[in-house]
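Deliverable D5.2: sample structural annotation.
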Amino acid sequence: MLTLTDNATTEIRNIISQPETPDGAGLRIATDPSAGGLALSLAAAPAEGDAVVDNSGARVFLDPQAATLLDDQALDAGKDAEGNVQFAVTPQPS
């Protein structure tokens, strides 16, 4: 199952704690065939069939294909030079 680093947990909680974000919201990672990769979006709730990763209130919803692809990966987060949050997927530490 996908794991979240401390940085990712903090950034996801910051995103979903905004006043305009509904309770129970999370980040959704889904396969995007048109882009040939994965797409990340804010979702009010998991879609049917999504796996849910909840790490101290930081919720990530994974569509079934993304869950399989990311099974042994970790989601990390950092900020770019402009202060925008950037997410990255890396192998889980041994």
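Annotation notes: The longest helix spans residues 6-16. The chain has two helices and seven strands.
The annotation will be released with the project's public dataset once the embargo ends.
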